[in-house]
Write a structure and sequence with these properties.
The complex is a heterodimer of chains A (about 70) and B (about 260). Chain A has about 70 residues and is mainly β. Chain A has helices spanning about 20-25, 55-60; strands spanning about 1-10, 30-35, 40-45, 65-70. In chain A, strands 1-4 form a two-stranded antiparallel sheet. The chains are: A mainly beta (about 70), B alpha/beta (about 260).
Chain lengths: ~70, ~260
Amino acid sequence: MAFKGAIEVDTQRCKGCSVCVENCPTKSIGLSRSVNNKGYHYAEMIADTCIGCSNCAVVCPDSVITVYRVKIQ
Amino acid sequence: MNLEDIKKPENIVYRKTPLLTDAIMHYCPGCSHGTVHKIIAEVIDEMGIQDKTIAISPVGCSVFAYNYIDVDWQEAAHGRAPALATATKRLNPDKYVFTYQGDGDLASIGTAEIIHACSRGENIVVIFINNGIYGMTGGQMAPTTLLGMKTATTPYGRDAKLNGFPMVIAPMIAQLDGTAFITRQAVHTAAAARKAKAAIRKAFEYSMKDIGLSFVEIVATCNSGWKMSPVEANKWMVENMFAKYPLGDIKDVLK
């Protein structure tokens, strides 16, 4: 069984600490080129390889990540 | 399947717990406090004890913890959170009472309070954030600062002859008969954060069994105080802090 996931980042609350980037097992998350209202490079999905494991959201100090996951046959 | 098809409410597997308020945390980017607040809020949410929890906030960076976790809070004088928690728990034995303290608060000015609360065997939970530095006031040496570690007040590194040795609280209070559960955890990776969450849940459950004080130490980072990026600080913590403060359970009277 395989999973496919997606994340949604509350970009205005993200502080761009990149702890999520280090914790992503599939390297699907990175920091954006653009900045939010506070001047931080926020986290975003950079590849379509997310498996919805929630590691990024669990370590996020500001709880800005929502994780979605579906089973694919 | 494209991403918009996945992003539907029925597919959510992880979201911010409703026990965390919408206030934006004042902590620096990558600070461990945010992660620890979150796992405490998740534990309270999963146990369904929001209306039965009373928390005591310390003095330090986490002094504003009451703005972030939606339970009842009291603010203690510097280091005196265990004393306030003692009174709160004795007057409300049916409530879950926990204190949230940093190493400057608990290991320095509040040493007497924590040791005597442990010795009396109060049925409270103590969450101890150990990042080896006074973060709020600008990165001065704390009792838990490692030997050789540079801080604002030890610019050439902590020297045992001049500044004494690091204070290791958890094994010290494990010798006291009043403590029930003592563990040391971290939140730098998802696996560590999940283990820390399980430990905090166990501590909350023990606090209702009338067997003594439960103490959860979290080895944490202060990337601003350590003058590193959050990711570098996590690596530095693994390489240096864990040697002096190894993770794992130190005492569990029910095992």
